[in-house]
Amino acid sequence: MSLKETIDIDMKAAMKSGDKNRLTTIRAIRAALLEKEVSIRVGGKAELSDEQETEVLVSMAKRRRDSIVQFTEGNRPDLAANEEAELSVIEEYLPEPASDEEITTVVKEIIAATGASSMKDMGKVMGQAMKSLKGKADGTKVQNTVKTLLNP
Fold it and tell me: Does residue 73 carry a pLDDT above 90?
């Protein structure tokens, strides 16, 4: 079952259950996917690949995390709680996040493959690591792992 079909089914379930926060978030996901679909459309109809759908969801999740930090720093726990609720719904549709061990393993393999030995090679390693871990790991986590492994 595609992500769009899953979202449609979940949206109907949220309507029936009366869960307004969940319904609002699912509608926002659906709108973001449709917007992305329209932006890549050339002539006729376009379908999003799984990777493109994941990009949209990752972007939405990142915005929610940033908002949570902003609202928490701005002493607005009510707004932060709302963003956290939306983030938890969005995360249901994201792939399972990579563990710290998985991230370290992937980064070590990339370092070995590229022959990276110092911080000068960080860009090369980061590019490949983010490609491998797309949608599964936060960029900051990957960056910290790369820095740790390249700085003896």
Answer: yes
The answer to whether 33 and 56 have CB atoms below 8 angstroms apart is yes
Domains of the chain: 3-91 (1.10.1510.10), 100-150 (1.10.10.410)
Kindly indicate the confidence band of residue 2, based on its pLDDT and cuts at 50, 70 and 90. confident
Q: Are 145 and 103 in contact (CB under 8 A)?
A: yes
Q: Average the pLDDT over 98-125 and give the result.
A: 85
Tokens 């990339």 correspond to what residue?
A: 110
- In angstroms, the CA 103 to CA 149 distance is 11
Q: Are 58 and 94 in contact (CB under 8 A)?
A: yes
